[in-house]
Amino acid sequence: MAIFSVYVVNKAGGLIYQLDHYAPRADTEKTFSFPLDFVLRPHDERVVVAFGQRDGVRVGHAVLAVNGAEVNGRFTADGKDVLEFLSNPANYPVSIRFGRHRLSSNEKLMLASMFHSLFAIGSQLSPEVGSSGIEMLETDTFKLHCFQTLTGIKFVVLADPRQAGIDSLLRKIYEIYSDFALKNPFYSLEMPIRCELFDQNLKLALEVAEKAGPFGPGS
């Protein structure tokens, strides 16, 4: 069981804090001969597998590195166009690392804003007045848990579906936010949280939650 990440979204829908706590490694690196068994295509400024699956490489996986050179978008770190390089038989055999695309800072900002909008839509769709909005979204690989304070700050935790004690963890994160962000004389409301004590105590809380589940009295 694991807690994957934490997001803090202000009442306007802006992402003011994000922590990647644990990222499952699903990268696959192999040496390939020409031609590739996959169809690669550009998608959202990166090169992804559009067709073909084998040896742990799946549709939707992105090209992360070519011959050890990290790929940024459609180009390797040494400036080679990935699709052009892999279309040339003279460059084979070639080592390629495939895996899940890592979200950029801009993508995280956009997704936080989208979730803020979905939360508001969920509140408005409720047949009862005063709905709390989205508290949990569930998939087969993770659960998204959300706790909104009375002032509109949202604390979002992405965790393994089997992880227990997330409700108490969310309130613990709110407590840490109150103690180490709001009480910090250098912190401005609604602005990004940059506080070492907040980071340290949040990471400790995530470790405790993973190992012990719910927080007990006095934790």
TrEMBL record:
GO BP term, example: endoplasmic reticulum to Golgi vesicle-mediated transport
Subcellular localization: Endoplasmic reticulum; Golgi apparatus, cis-Golgi network; Golgi apparatus membrane; Postsynaptic cell membrane
Keyword NAD: no
Domain of life: Eukaryota
GO cellular component: endoplasmic reticulum; Golgi membrane; postsynaptic membrane; TRAPP complex; vesicle
Keywords: Cell membrane, Endoplasmic reticulum, ER-Golgi transport, Golgi apparatus, Membrane, Postsynaptic cell membrane, Synapse, Transport
Pfam family, one: Sybindin
CDD domains assigned to the protein according to its UniProt record, in alphabetical order: TRAPPC4_synbindin
Family per record: Belongs to the TRAPP small subunits family. TRAPPC4 subfamily.
Assembly and interaction partners: Part of the multisubunit transport protein particle (TRAPP) complex.
PANTHER family, per the entry: TRAFFICKING PROTEIN PARTICLE COMPLEX SUBUNIT (PTHR23249), TRAFFICKING PROTEIN PARTICLE COMPLEX SUBUNIT 4 (PTHR23249:SF15)
Entry function: Core component of the TRAPP complexes which has a function of guanine nucleotide exchange factor activity for Rab1 GTPase. Plays a role in vesicular transport from endoplasmic reticulum to Golgi and autophagy. May play a role in dendrite postsynaptic membrane trafficking.
Name of the protein in its database record: Trafficking protein particle complex subunit
